[in-house]
Design brief:
This protein has 434 residues and is of the alpha+beta class. It folds into 3 domains: 110 residues, Alpha-Beta Plaits (2-Layer Sandwich), CATH 3.30.70.1050; 182 residues, Trigger factor, domain 2; 96 residues, Chitinase A, domain 3 (Roll). The protein is 46% helix and 22% strand. The chain is built from 12 helices and 11 strands. The strands form 3 sheets. Strands 6, 7, 8, 9 and 10 form a 5-stranded antiparallel beta sheet that branches. A 4-stranded antiparallel beta sheet has the order 1-2-4-3. The chain is elongated, with a radius of gyration of 34 Å. Its EC number is 5.2.1.8. One of its GO terms (biological process) is protein unfolding. This is Trigger factor. It is found in: Cytoplasm.
């Protein structure tokens, strides 16, 4: 075997390989002999087919396999000798100009980049700070009450939050348009089911009252034949119902899973769930800043092969997700190129984090994995069942291990960078700030 190496780019390598024809012929002969022991052919008992016929029938297959194995071995020997870390799979191409008695090939491939994590001391990490108290519990209970809103008849003008039932007829150029007529049609004012101008026209009317008004549909309205058009509506309010929120009492507590109806216990459970959610969101925001900091201080070129493989994986995941939602992916082609930017970032961070974990011994410890699984289980009715589920399969536990490793990296980077705490409101952290 002979090889020489040149470097056309930072990560790309080309190795020229020459394999001995004599060695290939020996391997072809060995493969044919092995095939002859089991090959079946009409007119012959298994294992009794003459070698000449076996060679005529399976010689091409044996030769192709022998050449492939020889090239693979030569390539593997070369990269091991030169201590190269191959990223992805090599592209093998025949090469002209082989010496007598040899076959020549060129292997083109990429190697992993050298990763040196940069100085983190100048990077700013801002940690959101929020203590969950009674105000946050009250706000969450209010949300839960609104989710369980009922409605009762109200002898008054319709207002925001009320549920109304109306008859309406819409005309475009004097003619009723498709979908422009309904009876006893219910909707909640302010819920966004109807256009704001339509809701505004209903607001202030009592049951039995009606009006006629013009309405102009938005330019981007989903029904293209109505987009940007002005129509005339006639409406009659049939019923007005006001919202009734449940009291925070034993029945309310039981509806949320507190079997004995203890309101204090309900508040305690809500607070515990909120604390876990707040912790999760704070960790997510800090993690994003840490990952951005690592990318900023560690400029590296990433192997295209790894990015392509990650893009394909993301596309496959998206395709499976669509299929689980009942969509036919053959009607919705999913192109891996859509995920190229996301894939490049994931590969880059994976390379940086792998180096960081190895260099600073940030691997996940068994007790850390156990603590994480038990913490995740706290929001379940039977926490021990979820713990058993995770520990039943190594693949599931590996997911928890990956999370712990990320947490270890985040903690390590936060210590090295300029990390400061910043008080935030509940709405800011939850993304509810207007």
């Amino acid at each position: 075997m002979e090889q020489n190496q040149v470097s056309p780019s930072a990560l790309e390598r080309r190795i020229d390989i020459a394999v001995s024809l004599a060695d290939i012929e020996k391997e072809v002969d060995a493969r044919l002999k092995r095939m002859a022991r089991t090959v079946k052919m009409p007119g012959f008992r298994p294992g009794k087919v003459p070698m000449k016929i076996v060679a005529q029938t399976h010689g091409g297959q044996a030769r192709g396999e022998a050449v492939g194995a020889a090239v693979e071995k030569a390539f593997g020997d070369t990269v091991r000798e030169q201590n190269l870390r191959v990223a992805g799979y090599p592209s093998i191409e025949p090469k002209d100009g082989a010496a007598e008695g040899t076959l020549a090939f060129s292997a083109v491939f990429e190697v992993y980049p050298e990763v040196v994590v940069g100085e983190l001391a100048g990077q700013q990490i801002e940690r959101p700070a929020l203590a969950v108290g009674d105000a946050e519990v009250d706000k969450t209970l209010d949300v839960l009450r609104k989710q369980r809103t009922s409605f009762a008849a109200a002898d008054r003008a319709a207002a925001e939050g009320d549920r109304v039932a109306i008859d309406f007829t819409g005309r475009k150029d004097g003619e009723v348009f498709e979908g422009g007529e309904a009876q006893d049609f219910p909707f909640v004012i302010g819920a966004g089911a109807m256009l704001k101008d339509f809701e505004a026209a209903v607001t202030g009317l009592k049951a039995g009252e009606g009006k006629t008004f013009d309405l102009t549909f938005p330019d981007d309205y989903h029904a293209t034949e109505l987009a940007g058009k002005t129509v005339q509506f006639e409406i009659t309010v049939k019923q007005v119902e006001g919202p009734v929120l449940p009291e925070i009492d034993a029945d309310f507590a039981r509806s949320l899973g507190v079997a004995d109806g203890d309101v204090a216990k309900l508040r305690e459970e809500v607070k515990g769930n909120l604390e876990r959610e707040v912790k999760r969101r704070i960790q997510a925001k800090v993690k994003e800043q840490v990952m951005n900091a690592l990318i900023a201080v560690t400029p590296i070129e990433v192997p295209k092969a790894l990015v392509q493989a990650e893009s394909q994986q993301l596309a496959d995941n998206a395709r499976r997700d669509l299929e689980m939602r009942g969509m036919k992916t053959k009607d919705i082609p999913v192109d891996p190129s859509w995920f190229a930017e996301q894939a490049e970032r994931r590969v880059r961070l994976g390379l940086i984090m792998a180096e960081l974990v190895k260099a600073n011994e940030l691997q996940a410890k068994p007790e850390q994995i156990r603590a994480l699984v038990e913490e995740m289980a706290q929001s379940y009715e039977d926490p021990s069942e979820l713990v058993r589920w995770y520990y039943a399969q190594p693949e599931r536990l590996a997911q928890a291990e990956a999370v712990v490793i990320e947490d270890n990296v985040v903690a390590w980077v936060s210590e090295k960078a300029q990390a400061t705490d910043k008080d935030v409101t509940f709405d800011e952290l939850m993304g509810n700030a207007g």
